Amino acid sequence: MNALMEFLRALVKANISKFKSSNLLQIFLEQETSHLIIKADSSHHKQSFYSLAKCIAIISVGSSPSEAINVANMFSSELTKIETLTDANVVIALLSIGEIGRHV
């Protein structure tokens, strides 16, 4: 996982047009609930949520502190729409906010 984190950090810093932080964030955010399902007895899926949140944090923090704050605020505002959220949305939002907070 550390190698992936370093790769994402380097990719964001390289500032390649197709791999800008906004594009990378969009890719990872699209994965947010596309195939992740919470099962109480499945540690594999729990680890998937945590890994996704770490990737989102690395990309947003690597871009700039203000971008990281914007992403955290986006997740925070999503949490106010609790009636339209799935459990996966809530878990990813909370984990991502926490991971961003660790790095900012």
Number of strands: 0
Which sheet architecture does the biggest sheet show? none
Number of helices: 5
Average residue pLDDT: 83
The topology string of helices and strands comes to HHHHH
Percent in strands: under 5%
Backbone shape? globular
Overall radius of gyration: 13 Å
- The residue ranges in which pLDDT falls below 50 over 5 or more consecutive positions are none
Number of domains: 1
Computed structural class? mainly alpha
Question: What percent of residues adopt helix (DSSP H or I)?
Answer: over 70%
Distance between the termini: 20 Å
Tell me about this structure.
With 104 residues, the protein is mainly α. The protein has one domain. The chain has five helices and no strands. Helix 3 packs across helix 4 (65-78) and helix 4 runs antiparallel to helix 5 (87-103). It is globular. The mean pLDDT is 83.
Keywords:
single chain; 104 residues; mainly alpha
How would you sum up this structure in a few lines?
This protein is mainly alpha-helical and 104 residues long.
List the helices and strands and how they pair.
Blueprint: H1 2-14, H2 21-30, H3 43-63, H4 65-78, H5 87-103
Helix pairs in contact: 1-3, 2-3, 3-4, 3-5, 4-5
